[in-house]
Amino acid sequence: ANCEAVIVTQSPAPGFVFNTPQTIVLIGTDASGNSSFCFFNVSLIDTINPEITCQPNIITCDNLVFYSNPTATDNCSVNAITRIVGPASGSVFPDGLTTITFVAEDDFGNTDTCSFTVLVNVTPIPTAVVTDVSCNGFGDGAIDVSVTAGSSPYTFVWSDGTSTSEDLTGLSGGNYTVVVTDAKGCIDSITVTVIEPIPLTATAIVTQISCYDANDGAIDITTSGGTPSYSYTWTPTNGGNSINNLSAGVHDVQITDINGCQFDMTFTIINPDSISISGDVSQYPNSWQISCEGC
């Protein structure tokens, strides 16, 4: 200005922070309102990489894995964080070791990467062979457990709260659960059922003999419970669940199911009284006459 003070303004204002190239405009204005301006361009040059931080390594027994996304900082600003290696969070990971890698990029193309690993240990797989209880009340059931996969040695905790052995014997009927833990802390469980048969029992229909010393008696047995099929051992005769043509006397049968469980029964065939006739025989002229008292 030739004689007056000039006020200079700047756009963008001093102290403005920008991350992209900018044009700076300066305007000078005097007291009379006369003005003039000039401008210049500012280009940014950023060679400093951002800093990205991944989460710690993961060790798990579950193939379904969730993890946190990394964080990143930059002297200007972070444009994007991108996963470039490995499955996304919430994916089903394979057994073994998997590497996850992310890259952070700022507005000027500077990058930084970080990685972490996911180790999925193989979970043990228990299977069981069950021996059911042979006869009601015997308590001779058993469970034989085998474990594949995982890392030995294994520990076992049964649902009774006290047993820690791999296999169980001397069992009654019921449900049994075992939790198997391997050397790396991976856990699986299995529940099995030991079946105990209902008691072996039988009912019978006895037909008594019709007359003294007859042999038309019969015994018809209906068997239930235990484990079919059934066999019958009679004394003193032979037969199955039904026998006929029996004479008076005691008849014993032992019923045996397929597991060797037994049930004994005893029957008595009663011999009815014989029929007796008493009377007087008198002789009359020219013929015999028989008189019967009480006939």
Please describe the structure with a list of short key phrases separated by commas or semicolons.
single chain; 295 residues; mainly beta; four-stranded mixed sheet; three-stranded antiparallel sheet; 53% strand
What can you see in these coordinates?
By secondary structure, the protein is an all-beta fold. The chain is built from no helices and 25 strands. Strands 5-11-10-8 form a four-stranded mixed β-sheet, with no helix packed on it. Strands 1-2-3 form a three-stranded antiparallel β-sheet, with no helix packed on it. A three-stranded antiparallel β-sheet has the order 12-13-15, with no helix packed on it. β22 and β23 form a beta hairpin.
Provide the fold topology.
Layout: E1 6-11, E2 22-30, E3 35-42, E4 51-53, E5 58-60, E6 64-65, E7 71-73, E8 78-85, E9 91-92, E10 96-106, E11 111-120, E12 125-131, E13 141-148, E14 155-158, E15 168-171, E16 174-181, E17 187-194, E18 201-207, E19 217-224, E20 231-235, E21 242-246, E22 249-256, E23 262-269, E24 279-284, E25 287-292
Parallel strand pairs: 5-11
Antiparallel strand pairs: 1-2, 2-3, 4-7, 6-9, 8-10, 10-11, 12-13, 13-15, 14-16, 16-17, 18-19, 19-21, 20-22, 22-23, 24-25
Brief overview, please?
This protein has strands spanning 6-11, 22-30, 35-42, 51-53, 58-60, 64-65, 71-73, 78-85, 91-92, 96-106, 111-120, 125-131, 141-148, 155-158, 168-171, 174-181, 187-194, 201-207, 217-224, 231-235, 242-246, 249-256, 262-269, 279-284, 287-292.
